[in-house]
Amino acid sequence: EADGVVFRHELARLAVETALSPDRAVSLHRGALAALSRPELGAPDLARLAHHAEAAGDGPAVLRHAPAAGEHAASLGAPREAQNQYARALRFAANLSSEQRAPLLERFADHAYLSDQRGEAADAMTEVIATYRRAGDHIGQGDALLRRSRLLSCIGRLPEASDDARESVRVLELAPPGPELASAYSMLAGTTRDEDPEASLVFGERAIDLAQRLGAIGPLVHALNNVG
């Protein structure tokens, strides 16, 4: 075709690919990665670059292209593809510091939440929480606890969700009050609603008050819903 060569059928492509020796396959993937990085027409296809980078065993290229491909997929409304691209990046992130891995894990969790892979997302946030705890970052730790609480709540692990919400409030109260704390109050209102309705209303009203003072629309909407 005008901008490349294609197989007439996916089965033909698979037949050729599986017939290649491993060293030949790696060599071809490296060549494809180099060629597709400089297309004759249009912009590079980020997903294809990430695919060939992984198959070539090129970790730095995976970490460069897979997150970008994930964000592009997310912008098109494809959270499962975005989640898969961040999972690909994380497979090559073993040698990164925990501070470098944390943003990848957070974005993986964001997209996994939307693609209904919430157990996997909660597991990812566990490492993020530990990273912020070691760094002494109260806002980062509290927000990560809040996000894991929301994920656990969605999959019915309510006692754990409530514990995370309480810990999130405790940690965030050590920092200047911000929208994260308003969200944590609201989350705690939601997780305690059945077991202690009176306490739930107290936390909900606290969330509403703080969100209104901060002009934080998202936490305000969440808190109004819980109180209602």
Question: Can you put this structure into words, describing what you see?
Answer:
- The protein is mainly alpha-helical and 228 residues long.
- The chain is 76% helix and 0% strand.
- Helix 4 packs antiparallel against helix 5 (79-91) and helix 9 (158-172) runs antiparallel to helix 10 (179-191).
- The chain is elongated, with a radius of gyration of 22 Å.
- The N and C termini lie far apart (59 Å).
Break the fold down into its secondary structure elements and pairings.
Layout (H helix, E strand, L loop, with lengths): L9 H10 L2 H15 L9 H10 L3 H17 L3 H13 L6 H17 L3 H18 L2 H17 L3 H15 L6 H13 L5 H18 L2 H11 L1
Q: Element order, helices and strands?
A: HHHHHHHHHHHH
Helix content: over 70%
Q: How does the helix and strand content classify structurally?
A: mainly alpha
Q: Oligomeric form of this entry?
A: single chain
Q: Total helix count?
A: 12
Distance between the termini: 59 Å
Described by the principal axes of the CA atoms, the overall outline is elongated
The residue ranges in which pLDDT falls below 50 over 5 or more consecutive positions are none
